[in-house]
Design goal:
about 240 residues, alpha+beta, Elongation Factor Tu (Ef-tu), domain 3, Threonyl-tRNA Synthetase, Chain A, domain 2, 2 domains, four-stranded antiparallel sheet, 3 helices
Length: about 240
C-alpha cells in the first residue's frame, strides 16, 4: 500500500497522526507519514511513534518498502509493534531532520557553484559531500566556501515545482546527478527551485529559505577516482 508523504507538501511538519496498515519483522507501515525514507543521498528520518496507551516506540530508520510507494518505519530491536488499524502519533527527531534539510539545500547551491556533472552525493546530520566529474585543479575550497555562504546569506526563498515526464525529456540539462535519475512513471516530477541559482529534480527535504543554511565550511577536497572529485562540507563554528 502506498504511503501518503506528508513532508512533500510541508517538510516542517514535526508531528502528525496516522494509522498502521501493516507491521512485522521490526517494520511498520502507515497510511501516511512525516518520516522521510532513505533516498537520493539523504538518510531516513528517526523519531518516535506514540501509541494510544502512551507507549513511545522509537524509530531508528526509515526506508522504502518493496511495494511501490510503501514506506517502512524501522523500530528499535525487540520493540512490541502496533497492530494493523491502530492509530499512532508521529514525532520526528526535528533537530536531526532540520540539519539534513540545511545540508541538502546547501548541496544544491554547491552544484551550481561548481559547474560540472555531479557523480554522487551523501548527507549526514553533521556533514555532506558532492562528487564531481571535474579536473581536481579547478576545485578551490576557499572559492566554493565563499560563494556558498554568500548565496546562503542572500535569504532566497526556495520553491517546490512540478513538471511532467515529457517536459523533463525536453530539458535534460535539469538533471545534474549522473548517479541518480529522477523517478518516472507517476506522470509528474518534483523539482527544487532556488530563484536565480538552481532548478533540478529532487525528492528530498529542503529549507524554505537559504538563510536557514547558516555558515558552512569546506572541510576537504579529495580525489576519489578518475571521475570523482569530492567536496566535503560541514557546519561552521
Amino acid at each position: 500500500m502506498a504511503t501518503e508523504l506528508l513532508f512533500r507538501a510541508d517538510a516542517y511538519l514535526q508531528t502528525a497522526t496516522a494509522r498502521v496498515t501493516a507491521a512485522g519483522d521490526g517494520r511498520i507501515e502507515l497510511d501516511r507519514t512525516i518520516f522521510y525514507s532513505t533516498g537520493g543521498g539523504q538518510p531516513g528520518d528517526t523519531g518516535v511513534l506514540v501509541r494510544s496507551g502512551g507507549e513511545r516506540l522509537r524509530i531508528i530508520d526509515t526506508r522504502k518498502g518493496d511495494a511501490p510507494g510503501a514506506v517502512l518505519h524501522v523500530a528499535e530491536p525487540g520493540a512490541a509493534l502496533p497492530a494493523a488499524g491502530e492509530a499512532v502519533e508521529l514525532e520526528i527527531d526535528w533537530p536531526r531532520r532540520h540539519a539534513l534539510m540545511r545540508l541538502h539545500t546547501a548541496l544544491h547551491v554547491i552544484s551550481c557553484v561548481v559547474v560540472a556533472p555531479v557523480t554522487g552525493g551523501q548527507i549526514a546530520p553533521d556533514k555532506a559531500r558532492l562528487d564531481f566529474d571535474i579536473d581536481m585543479a579547478l576545485l578551490d575550497a576557499a572559492h566554493i566556501e565563499r560563494e556558498l555562504n554568500a548565496i546562503s546569506a542572500r535569504g532566497l526563498a526556495t520553491e517546490t515545482v512540478w513538471i511532467t515526464d515529457a517536459e523533463l525529456d525536453e530539458r535534460p540539462e535539469l538533471v545534474k546527478t549522473m548517479s541518480v535519475q529522477p523517478p518516472r512513471g507517476a506522470g509528474r516530477i518534483r523539482l527544487l527551485r532556488i530563484p536565480g541559482v538552481d532548478l533540478q529534480p529532487c525528492g528530498g527535504t529542503h529549507v524554505r529559505n537559504t538563510a536557514e543554511i547558516g555558515t558552512l565550511r569546506v572541510v576537504r577536497i579529495r580525489n576519489e577516482g578518475r571521475r570523482n572529485k569530492r567536496v566535503e562540507i560541514a557546519f561552521g563554528a
